[in-house]
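Action item from last week, closing it out:
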Amino acid sequence: LLQDQDGEQWLATLHRGVISAGGRSLYACSPDGRDILHHAWNLTQDLQGNTWIASNYVGLEAHALRHRPGAAQPEMLGIDGARGPLKYGVRHVRADARGWVWHAFRGVFVFDGAAWQQLCIPLQGQEFADVRLSYEDREGNIWLGYWGGGLAFCDPASVRRFAEAEGLPHREVTALAADRQRRLWVGTAGG
């Protein structure tokens, strides 16, 4: 669910694409003619008001979907540096306080408004396609919550993973939030 800069509510759905409370829907077509937004995972909005969409589009290249304010439909942007066919599509997208847009699939790629950069390498035995949640801390670092893979901390230079061995009650992360003291709280299937 996303409220855009004009106050319109948008919903990413698994079978109806991206729809608004006002009855509008977004459509994007892949180079081979498939509906890219049929399985939309989540939405985010950057500082310029662009809506970014994570979708289950599986193809020969990784693509980001950006919907500019006032545009009829989203545009596909190739993600430089992402090589090889995608197995799961882009499962998670978020915009941070700097205006960077983070895409998680087979690695974490960040768009700074001008170019793509791969910030984190995949962790052994875990695909970034399993990322379901993210949180930005006050230092601008990104925390990624996995569906069955624990928690990862990403800064511009490194990635570190937390699982049961590091004190996480369960590997399935279900919620990420901060309290008034800006401490990160992690909800898991085990508490």
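Closing note: The chain is about 0% helix and 45% strand.
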